[in-house]
Write a structure and sequence with these properties.
The protein is of the alpha+beta class and about 575 residues long. About 45% of the residues lie in helices and about 15% in strands. It contains 19 helices and 16 strands. The strands form 3 sheets. Strands 11, 12, 13, 14, 15 and 16 form a 6-stranded mixed β-sheet that branches. The longest helix has about 40 residues, at about 260-300.
């Protein structure tokens, strides 16, 4: 990897922005003054907005989403930008190559003409150029100049060394973006913040009531939070880019006093952190999206899986295991579980409520648990599920699933079902491991639904529920044929649904009790004679005979399939 360029001594230049934006995003068609020219800002230019003769944009890079290079108005836009003193204009590529006349217009002026590469989104162009602009104008203190742009964890550790304490970098909503390594005993509040990946809501409310956030967001300086009988002293400062608040940096004494110059170090760190947070907001999310897609490609066995593995740093040799965790909101447990597609994100058994704020918070917590306790793992989220690929380790595969279940209990109204699939000997077996883990989750979900009581979190290994997994696969295979048929069990189920009778429940209880009438009656809370009467009437009315081996088999399968449909 080539080293990043150092900030231009006279301020950011067009050359510096183009370098940081990366190759393939913008093409330079013409640059009459060269690219070593200063840039003051990057703005979106609305071509449809009227401009008078006094319109000025000195040093601006103008993005023009509404104008293509082969359009008739392209030359007029370029001339207007040149009169306004713009450093550069970015047009979108047209269906044809830009006419030579447009390059000639650019050559006669001072404004550089750039083209957005096909397939590149304008939002990405704007984000990258603004990130590059922020990076160019930031003078990093000692120890931070060599950080890779967007390396928030490295930033937190570097700032921790400068201030002599523990560092947390947060977004404006008090969610944790990064934190420094733990070298000393952290106070309980820091542990809660890191594990929950956000400042506890009660603490946010407490600080808001005290006016702390008002002071933090309105001040350009360090705000001090004195120590009390509960927590150590903290210093905080807002990170800004222009007029926008990007987040904050918090320093806490972690068993030792903060350095005397901690406040000064935080001020310098906040200035240098701006481009890193801008990068996180734009490129960081794109990179996370690409990584998640690569994990999905691996787990689904799509073409290019080998390349995805290399990009993720996943070793080509196995063995591996796949863990699937599914989040439910107990206020809306969702519908019954039936046959589901097997791909990541295809499991419609997870309720929509699991993808709301609570669901995202739990998924974040589960991903953090996986990263902490499964070295070398990679993960992806889809809907209300987290998919984790990890190198297999001895017989301890259940431990991370149990940890996830335990972690979920700290979030109100949430239930997690975590399943570990069969071992995969190599990358080609990952889709089968993922599918078996999904089946384990379905087993846990169906157990919860059949229990009738409040749902509770649970975890299991594939080998622990192998019989139930096999039954699910059989039912999935049989269901399409069963739905096309008509027979005694179909007639009994239809009668129960129409008349509210309980013949099907009675037959199911008898079968589950292996023919023990008294045990089945106790389960139904009826007298044994009542159960015998219902079984006799089921035979007389519908032809469902529990005394016939074939009849018992069909009744068992049919009633399980009926329960799937409610």
């Amino acid at each position: 990897m080539e080293p990043e360029p150092t900030p231009h001594p006279g301020g950011p230049t067009l050359a510096h922005l183009l370098t940081l934006a990366g190759p393939g995003m913008l093409d330079v068609v013409a640059a009459p003054l060269g690219t070593d020219v200063p840039v003051a800002d990057v703005v979106v230019h609305d071509v449809g907005e009227d401009r008078d003769d006094d319109w000025a944009a000195p040093g601006h890079v103008l993005l023009t989403p509404g104008t293509s290079a082969d359009s008739p108005e392209a030359a007029d836009v370029l001339r207007a930008a040149d009169r306004a003193g713009a450093t550069a204009v970015v047009l979108r590529s047209g269906a044809r190559r830009p006419p030579a006349a447009l390059a000639a217009v650019a050559a006669r002026g001072r404004t550089a003409l750039l083209l957005r590469a096909p397939g590149t989104d304008w939002t990405e162009v704007l984000g990258r150029l603004r990130t590059a602009l922020a990076h160019s104008g930031a003078a990093a203190p000692a120890g931070m100049a060599g950080l890779r742009l967007g390396d928030l964890a490295g930033l937190a550790n570097t700032v921790a060394d400068l201030v002599g304490g523990a560092i947390t970098i947060e977004d404006p909503r008090s969610r944790v973006l990064a934190y420094s390594r733990l070298e000393h005993a952290a106070d309980p509040l820091r542990l809660l913040t890191i594990l929950g990946q956000e400042v506890p809501r009660w603490r946010v409310a407490e600080l808001r009531e005290r006016g702390f956030f008002t002071a933090l967001w309105s001040s350009g300086d360090v705000v001090r939070l004195p120590a009390d009988d509960r927590y150590a002293e903290r210093l905080a400062i807002a990170v800004r880019h222009g007029g926008e608040v990007l987040g904050s940096i918090w320093a806490a004494a972690d068993g030792r006093p903060l350095a005397e110059d901690a406040a000064a170090a935080l001020r310098a760190a906040a200035r240098a952190a701006a481009p890193h947070l801008v990068h996180h907001e734009t490129w960081g999310r794109e990179e996370a999206g690409r990584r998640e897609q690569a994990v999905k490609d691996l787990l689904e066995g799509r073409p290019g899986a080998q390349q995805a593995a290399r990009g993720l740093g996943v070793a080509p040799e196995g063995p591996y295991t796949v863990l699937v965790a599914e989040v439910h909101d107990t206020r809306n447990p969702g519908g019954p579980a039936g046959p589901r597609p097997s791909g990541p994100g295809a499991a419609s058994g997870a309720p929509a409520a699991a993808t709301d704020t609570t669901g995202h918070r739990v998924l974040d917590l589960l991903a953090l648990q996986a990263a902490a306790y499964l070295p070398g793992c990679v993960s992806a989220r889809s809907g209300g599920r987290l998919f984790v690929l990890t190198p297999a380790a001895g017989g301890a595969e259940a431990d991370p699933a149990r940890r996830m279940v335990a972690a979920a209990r700290s979030v109100p109204h949430s239930v997690v079902f975590a399943g570990v699939g069969q071992r995969a000997a190599d990358l080609s077996e990952l889709p089968a491991s993922r599918a078996s883990a999904e089946l384990v989750v379905r087993v846990l979900r169906e157990r919860a639904a059949a229990g009738g009581g409040p749902w509770t979190s649970a975890s299991a290994l594939h080998r622990d529920v192998v019989s139930e997994v096999a039954l699910l696969r059989v039912l999935d295979s049989v269901e399409p044929t069963w739905q096309e048929m008509n027979g005694p069990v179909h007639a009994m189920v239809a009668h129960d649904r129409t008349h509210g009778s309980a013949y099907g429940a009675s037959v199911a209880a008898f079968l589950d009790a292996f023919g023990d009438t008294r045990a089945a009656a106790r389960g139904l809370n009826v007298h044994p004679n009542t159960l015998r009467y219902r079984l006799r009437r089921a035979r007389e009315l519908f032809g469902v005979d529990v005394g016939d081996p074939v009849g018992r088999l069909l009744a068992g399968l049919g009633l399980r399939l009926a329960r799937r449909g409610g």
